[in-house]
Write a structure and sequence with these properties.
Blueprint: H1 4-20, H2 24-27, H3 40-54, H4 64-68, H5 73-83, H6 93-103, H7 110-123, H8 128-142, H9 152-158, H10 170-182, H11 191-204, E1 213-218, E2 226-231, E3 235-247, E4 262-269, E5 272-276, H12 288-293, E6 295-296, E7 301-304, E8 314-318, E9 324-328, H13 332-349, H14 378-401, H15 411-443, H16 448-462
Antiparallel strand pairs: 1-2, 3-4, 3-9, 4-5, 5-6, 7-8, 8-9
Helix pairs in contact: 1-7, 1-8, 3-5, 5-7, 8-10, 9-10, 13-15, 14-15
Subcellular location: Cell projection, Ruffle membrane
Organism: Esox lucius (Northern pike)
GO molecular function, one term: guanyl-nucleotide exchange factor activity
Length: about 500
Amino acid sequence: GYSMWLTLLCCHVLLDSESELSSLEQQEGGSTDTLANGCRADCDAAKRLAKRLFYLEGFKRCDVARHLGKNNDFSQLVASEYLSYFDFSGLSLDKALRNFLKAFPLMGETQERERILVHFSKRFYGAHTLTCALMLLNTDLHGHNIGKKMSCQQFITNLDGLNDGKDFPKDLLKVLYNSIKNEKLEWAIEEEEFRKSLSELVEEQCEGGGKRGVARVTDGNNPFIAIPLLLNAVTYKHGVLTRKSHADMDGKRTPRGRRGWKKFYAVLKGMILYLQKDEYKPDADLSEVDLKNAVRIHHALATRATEYSKRPNVLKLKTSDWRVFLLQAASEEEMMSWIFRINLVAALFSAPAFPAAIGSMKKFCRPLLPSSSTRLSQEEQLQSHEGKLKQMSVEVEEHRKNPPSPSPKSREWEEYRIKEHYLIYEKGRYETYINLLQAKMRAETDDLEKIEASIMSGIGESRGGREGYLRKTKSSPSISQHGLNGKASGHTTPGHPS
């Protein structure tokens, strides 16, 4: 089941969002007299819009989220007014949450969906922590790629001390647990409306006549487990890969029955590695199965699988949530190319990590790693990685100076080892990112094959030289800080590398 750190992290993000919504505390009573500047006109407009959104007068359900989740005063007014139309009196939290989630599809950027849930939590007696816990419990009990399910006792234990320093009533938590276990949370989604909303999003992002934009699709269970789907995202590589699932979320070993090797046609597009059953077709729509097999590579690290010797040319891909996949390529050259391109895309586009959640010091918590694309320039991204590397190096030193009590089998020692493993891994990940960004900047080009050739030639020379390491192609994708959105300089078509 989900470990406590996930619950803490989700609530941490929501509580961070709460600071953006402080004005809502004044609005909850329904009075408009205490609003900033007494802006009656904005309030009246917000009320009108909220009413039209609730009764779908001139709007579709998929339009609602975009008006509630923006980070501006008017959107916050609209959201507060919209929530006032729900009658949660006499309802338990799980039933109120079910009613709310069925009202409209939670679409948009992760932060927008988070803000909407904050509005719900404030409307329902400020139940941030429990709302978060139910969302995560639902994913744990009913989601994909999960090993052992969370028990009721684990759910209760995970929430110890999170009710303003006190425990939640156990009877309440048991009722909530059983409610989610017996009936999963359902999300409002209408395919036709989703596609129309998607096209409108594209038009809003339109630049220079080209349709480009960002949408998000979910795995059908929880909008927070979102795959960022980039329309017209650059394809950085495609080819055959054979996949073996080695570890599930949090590094838990994949059950034996799901560890078999499966062959896919892999497409690295934007920050997603799509694993498709059919051969790559640039204009083909992704199937539901393709989306379920997709792997997000934000904050991921690809390395040669040196500890695996049963097959040749195998790379290890470790994701941000510490799932581990073994991927076999057709040749060593292909394996090295996949490693390089996955890591460079992750280095260039992964948004800076959130600060670690403040939780119990007894249990180590990994920080939340956002799936959104960075807004930093290439130079700023490099500086961010260098800062994280410095931080990790200092933390490793500090960590080793303060070992726990002598007993090597104690829980403290286990937590100590877990944290040390994390710090060393993160140190290596940021070192890889920094080396790749520095190599890209030295190459003074956004042409991916030229960057790869320059790096691989160095590797080849160190191994005794290998001419013709990369097969030449008619076109090569560009990779730049804008390339993820299909706006790369140089080659603007995806191309067909390798």
